């Protein structure tokens, strides 16, 4: 699951691997042969993120956009291990609903395919002199000679909460106009990439907890100051995740670092709130994606 901060962490890794390196080969099922020829022999001009999108620009003028949705992932290998067959496939993460119902932990099982070259999930392979980058599962990989940042869907994204140019007043204007005369609830507003970009299901729950907001409150019932405060706090929370490998909660002194201590409420239903001890609850019907919250810290109509 890649939200803005995780996507930016991945983009940094791609840039650190490709920067200054010549592309020896690029493999993708549907790449146009003329674009492939252009990329081979070129280097990488930049790797940027736009919300949850990554754009790689090659020095020959070809752009590549990747959106990982829930399933995509990248891995980087030494070319020697790749070619000798010792580069291992990443584990398959299963978010199966039946398993997920009873536990908030991700079920991970080792992939049966050990040689990554035989992994059917591979969508894209980029080879340099010493490294091999593999993109698994796509699902969106778009090549173009036009700057994809100026085209849909990126051109319609709301301000990027991780961008230095993030403008909360623009977000406030969009959120007000989109919610006017509607029943839009705050959880769904935060997930709407046209309001502001980069927030996914995890950060949605964490942001609402850290702002003591009931997740199903209608946007139209918020005061101007309440909305302003929320929108202003979003970049700080995403930036913390970006700088701390996706964590949202700072560990306490001597606390063991584990999945259980990483978040405030996300995937913690049934566990005690870190602040008040009340059991965290989750809701899967009122919003398209599960929402986790503390009923004591985030009561109805408190804000
Ligand atoms: Zn609480």
Explain how this protein is built.
This protein is α+β, with helices and mostly antiparallel strands. It has 2 domains: 4-156, N-terminal domain of MutM-like DNA repair proteins, CATH 3.20.190; 168-293, Helicase, Ruva Protein, domain 3, CATH 1.10.8.50. It is built from 8 helices and 12 strands. It has helices at residues 4-18, 33-39, 79-84, 97-102, 168-179, 186-191, 201-210, 224-243, and strands at 25-28, 44-50, 53-58, 63-67, 73-78, 92-94, 107-109, 122-127, 131-136, 140-144, 281-283, 291-293. The strands form 4 sheets. Strands 1-8-9-5 form a 4-stranded antiparallel β-sheet. A 4-stranded antiparallel β-sheet has the order 2-3-4-10, with helices on one face. Strands 6-7 form a two-stranded antiparallel ribbon. β3 and β4 form a beta hairpin. α1 packs parallel to α8 (224-243) and α5 (168-179) packs across α8 (224-243). The radius of gyration is 21 Å and the shape is globular. The chain binds zinc ion. Zinc ion (ZN) binds at residues 273, 275-276, 278, 294, 296-297. The site of zinc ion has 7 residues, from loops.
Quick take:
The chain is of the alpha+beta class and 303 residues long.
Keywords:
alpha+beta; four-stranded antiparallel β-sheet; 8 helices; 303 residues; binds zinc ion; Helicase, Ruva Protein, domain 3; N-terminal domain of MutM-like DNA repair proteins
Distance between the termini: 30 Å
Average pLDDT reading: 91
**Taking strands numbered 1, 2, ... along the chain, how are they ordered across the largest sheet?**
1-8-9-5
CATH superfamily of the largest domain: MutM-like, N-terminal
How many domains in all?
A: 2
Strand content: 15-25%
Stretches where pLDDT is under 50 for at least 5 consecutive residues are: 95-108
Instruction: Identify the CATH class of the largest domain.
Output: Alpha Beta
Q: What's the helix-strand series? A: HEHEEEEHEHEEEEHHHHEE
Q: Which class best fits the helix and strand makeup? A: alpha+beta
Q: What's the alpha carbon Rg, rounded to whole Å?
A: 21 Å
Q: Which ions and ligands are bound to the chains? A: zinc ion
Please count the beta strands (DSSP E, at least 2 residues each): 12
Overall 3D form: globular
Helix share, percent: 25-40%
Q: Would you tell me which CATH topology of the largest domain applies? A: N-terminal domain of MutM-like DNA repair proteins
- Number of DSSP helical runs: 8
- Largest pleated sheet: 4 strands, antiparallel
């Amino acid at each position: 699951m890649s939200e803005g901060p995780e996507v930016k962490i991945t983009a940094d890794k791609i840039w650190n691997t490709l920067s200054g390196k010549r592309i020896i080969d690029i493999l993708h099922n549907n790449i146009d042969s003329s674009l492939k020829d252009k990329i081979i022999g070129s280097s990488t001009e930049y790797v940027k993120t736009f919300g949850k999108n990554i754009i790689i620009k090659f020095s020959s003028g070809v752009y590549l956009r990747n959106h990982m949705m829930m399933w995509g992932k990248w891995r980087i290998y030494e070319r020697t291990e790749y070619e000798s067959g010792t580069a291992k496939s990443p584990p398959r993460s299963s978010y199966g609903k039946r398993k997920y119902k009873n536990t908030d932990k991700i079920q991970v099982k080792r992939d049966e395919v050990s040689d990554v070259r035989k992994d059917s999930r591979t969508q894209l392979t980029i080879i340099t002199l010493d490294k091999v980058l593999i993109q698994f599962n796509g699902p969106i990989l778009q090549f173009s000679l036009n700057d994809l940042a100026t085209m849909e869907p990126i051109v319609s994204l709301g301000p990027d909460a991780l961008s230095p140019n993030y403008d909360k007043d623009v977000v406030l204007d969009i959120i007000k106009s989109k919610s006017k005369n509607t029943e839009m609830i705050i959880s769904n507003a935060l997930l709407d990439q046209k309001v502001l970009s980069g927030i996914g299901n995890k950060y949605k729950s964490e942001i609402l907890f850290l702002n003591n907001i009931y997740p199903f409150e209608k946007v139209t019932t918020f005061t101007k100051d309440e909305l302003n405060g929320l929108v202003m706090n979003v970049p700080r929370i995403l930036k913390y995740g970006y700088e701390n490998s996706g964590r949202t909660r700072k560990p306490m002194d001597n606390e063991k670092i584990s999945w259980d201590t990483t978040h405030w409420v996300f995937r913690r239903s049934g566990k005690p709130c870190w602040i008040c001890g009340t059991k965290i609850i989750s809701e899967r019907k009122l919003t398209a994606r599960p929402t986790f919250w503390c009923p004591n810290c985030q009561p109805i109509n408190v804000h």
